Amino acid sequence: METPPLDQALSFRKLLIERFKDFHVQLPTTGCAVCFPDMFFDKGPPGDDLRGLVIGAQELPYLKDILPVVMNRAVPDPWPVSSGWMQAIQKLWGETWTPSISLGGRVELDAERRLRLDEDQVRILECLDGNNRLFITGSAGTGKTVLAARAALLEVEKGRKVLLLCYTEALAAFLKAYLENERVIVDAVRMFASSLLGERGPEDRAGKPIAYWDNVSLRAAVDGVPSQEDLWNTVIVDEGQDFSGDDWELVKECVHPEGKLWVFADPAQGFWSDRGVRENLVNGFMKFDLKRPYRCPPSIQHLGECYSGACQPDRQILRQALKDRVIHIITSSEERLKKQIGKEVNRLLSEGLNPHDIAILSLRGLGSEEGIFHEKQLAGHRLVAATDKKASEHIICDTFLRFKGLERPAIIITDLRLVKERHPMRMHIAISRALSLLRIIGVEQEIKKDLILARLI
């Protein structure tokens, strides 16, 4: 050793005396001994300075008996102990230190964890490749969208013509940016149908009546699909639980007779009772169920599953999440609701999050005039819709349905007071969007009507 162990101890003793002077506390009588915890020996060093002051591995099980003997040798004549020395030792050695991490730091660690798990998910594709008909299910957070996107890239690399369809426009926009590959056609199914009919322009979306979107997929299946040689070798569907019967007709027409059709779905997130993946559609498909949720922290995952009916609330898990600030429930009056949301946004930003880490989700749809999604600014921060081209730079403020399939580190759920029906389903979908942190902000009496939240406030 460059510095003998006893010299190391004496140097530390000198440092300790100096630090006690800073506290204006007299250090008790001190001495030095040496321990070699991984060495066995019968006799200690012969030098007088170490005689009786060396402990080896063979003595570790008997420290209760050994240490008083060593103490008497190291400090043969101690002087009276002054007050305050134990508190000084505790302060110096951090015995009252509570480990903590900023919310921004937690978000970064969660992102690293998910990146490693994404690699695990991709290995699933290697096992499933070669099947022309696949039906992959999984609860929120099991990586369905990640797999769908990676599958599209792998198919393109093999020279196949690939079509990736989902239901929500915001998810389609995200997937386009995520893939960054012009050889994959990515679109929301009904916008894609409109394109096939040649009826989609840059500003077409807002001007179309609801009836148009209700039957556009069937019209495209009949009149808009290209000839057989121009069909897609691989068609991948995400959010399959939200596709209507007409949407599926269009999907089937787009697949080349010798091509692949891979479907990803979560039946628990099917908001519309008349839509979904019917059994006759996937009859003969190879079926695979993703079991391992990895997107959300366990406590957020658990809360979401409580609303889906998959389990009963575990108060210990949820109380710990509240203590760790992973979940935070904030009550407010109706008049102060927006101000409370703004305060929480500022709090998250002050603890290391960026605007693009936050999404504010209303439990109401676009039909509500009072919904938070009509706001363009909050607490001085710009708010944008999930479909906005600047969504990757700003705080998103939108409905839970339009944000379906997307995710952000911090999710703020609000507008509980505007919900008349299907409250548990809305909560399940909104909660499952949170990658690291969940905030629920609502009028107090409405939160108390929620039997799960009422027990936590």
Task: Describe this structure as you would to a colleague.
The chain is α/β, with parallel strands linked by helices and 457 residues long. It has 16 helices and 15 strands. Strands 9-15-14-10-13-12-11 form a seven-stranded mixed beta sheet. Helix 11 (298-308) packs antiparallel against helix 14. The chain is elongated and about 100 Å long. The relative contact order is 0.10. The mean pLDDT is 90.
Outline the fold blueprint.
Layout: H1 5-22, E1 34-36, E2 54-56, H2 63-74, H3 85-93, H4 103-128, E3 133-138, H5 144-157, E4 162-166, H6 169-179, E5 184-188, H7 189-196, H8 204-207, H9 210-223, E6 232-237, H10 245-254, E7 255-265, E8 286-290, H11 298-308, H12 315-323, E9 327-332, H13 337-350, E10 358-362, E11 377-378, E12 381-384, E13 395-399, E14 408-414, H14 423-431, E15 434-443, H15 444-449, H16 451-454
Largest sheet: 7 strands, mixed
- How many beta-strand elements? 15
Instruction: Please report which band the strand proportion falls in: under 5%, 5-15%, 15-25%, 25-35%, 35-45% or over 45%.
Output: 15-25%
Shape: elongated
SS-derived structural category: alpha/beta
Q: Tally the helices: what do you get?
A: 16
Overall average residue pLDDT: 90
Poorly predicted residue ranges: none
> Helical residue percent?
25-40%
Distinctive features:
single chain; 457 residues; alpha/beta; 7-stranded mixed β-sheet; 6-stranded parallel β-sheet; 39% helix; elongated
